[in-house]
Amino acid sequence: MVVPTSAPTRSWTMPDLTGRNLQAAQDAIQALTNDEVFFTSSTDLTGRGRNQVLDRNWQVCTSTPAPGATFTKDTAINFGVVRVDTERCP
């Protein structure tokens, strides 16, 4: 009897996307993973809990996982962001 083996989980290295707008960061992850990772989340770093509706208006300050870390399609990716036009990264 042949026991099927699962394919190895594919992984990627998290790029440094700090300073990019949120839309560009999301696009970069999708391009890097060939859309295997399509969804990323984001958090307002000011603590005000604002939603990021227009992603181009938000600048990436941090990422989880951190730049250089390995991630898979099952890794939750979160970008810490502030408004591009009026705020600086903490």
UniProtKB/TrEMBL annotation:
Domain of life: Bacteria
Protein name as catalogued: PASTA domain-containing protein
Phylogenetic placement of the source organism: Bacteria, Bacillati, Actinomycetota, Actinomycetes, Mycobacteriales
